[in-house]
Amino acid sequence: MSEKEHIEILKSIEKFILGELSQSQIDDLWVEFLKNPEYYKLFETELYMRGLAGKGIKPNFSDDLSQVKEPAVSYIYKYRVWFAAAAAALLITIGLQFFSINEQQAMQQWALSSIDTNEMLGAEIFRSDEPDVASIDIAINEALALAFNDETIIAIERFRELLTMPHTESQRVRIEVNLGILLYNVTAYESAVVYFESALGAESIDRNLKEKTYWFLGNAYLNIGQVNEARDAVFEAYTLSGRFQSPALALLKKLDQRIHTVPPDAVR
Fold first, then answer.
1. What's the mean pLDDT in 61-68?
2. Euclidean distance between the first and the last CA atom of the chain, given in angstroms as a whole number
């Protein structure tokens, strides 16, 4: 700790005793006390000395506090109680945060590490009287080729550009699912959630694609720690009874046992 920081803490102790600190400043000072107990001892000593001075009592530097008369010792005992309470509260908070982080990390391990790019959707090219529609189909397949050639970032940019162009709902769904997959694979899980959710909002999405998208959405939610949302999406995938039903069931059982939404045997 620098000399400047040391002096600032001493000034804060002085202001605390004089009642000149805001609540947030007091909280910061207690954190310093917990990190550096020597400052708390200094704080105790200062309270003790001021308590004696207030009563015109000559200081007794014995370590035996039983020899110290009230009210000086009352200052020390009062703040010791506060210090103990603050320390306990901080330890509980840190413990809960540590537990929460560990829980989240454990559940993230259940999620897909990546999504196979073979799950991405190409466009079937048909003759069309609408040139824009046909050109978007071609562009979707070109962006898909970029993804297959490991040009992931360029493919993401290209798919995003396609969303700004005239397109049908079916084309939008394909573009958004593809974006969700690519963003998932670069660990941009929150952005992946946005695109998966948007695709699922389309009326034209077919059953198989809906199941797949819910499954990927659930895994994306799990990676950002939104466990209840993950459970809901995975359950939707499970109820569609397609090729993702078995992995969805396995993940549901793990999630239900961890978050206790239903008894472990409620989903079979």
1. 46
2. 59
